[in-house]
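Dear colleagues,

As part of the handover before I leave the project, I'm documenting each prediction I ran so the next person doesn't have to rerun anything. This entry is a single chain, and its sequence is reproduced below.
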Amino acid sequence: MKKLLLGLLFFTSMQWSYAQTSTPNTKSKSDQKTEQKLLDLSKQKWQWMADKNVDKLASLFDDKSKFVHMSGTWKKDEELEIIKTGSIWYKNAKVHDAAVEIFEKTAIVWNRITLEAIVRGNEAVTEFTVTEIYQKQGKNWKLLGLTFSSVRDTHQIKK
C-alpha cells in the first residue's frame, strides 16, 4: 500500500511539474500590439474604401500591390481608379471575424465580411473572406495584396 501511495504521489507530482513547464505558446505584448494595429489598419482601409478616400488608400497600397476580385485582377492604379469613379463602391464592409499572422516583416490579415457594394450600378451584398497581405516598410505597413474569396455565411476563420 505504501508503495502504491508513493508511486501515485510521484506520478502526480511529475504531471504537475510537466504542466508547469509546458505552457501554451503565448504571444508577447509586442506581438499582440502589432496584431491589433494591423486589425485597426484593415478596418480603417474598409472605411477609406467606403468614403472613396483614394489619397489615404494610395499611401497604404504598395506600388506593386495586386487586387483579386470576382471579375478580375488588377494593380494599384486600377484599383484606385475603380474606387474613385465608383465603378465599385464599397459602401459597407461588416467584419464578422478576423485573424492575423505575422511572419517577421510580413503579415496576413483574414477578414470574414458581408460586403454591401454598388458594382457597375448594381447593388450587391456578398459574403467574402478577404485575405490581405501587408509588409512592414520603415515605420509603416503597406498593403501588398488583397484577395476576395466568395464563401458561405457559415464559413469560419480558424485562429
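The longest strand covers residues 88-103. DSSP finds four helices and six strands in the chain.

All the best with the project,
I.
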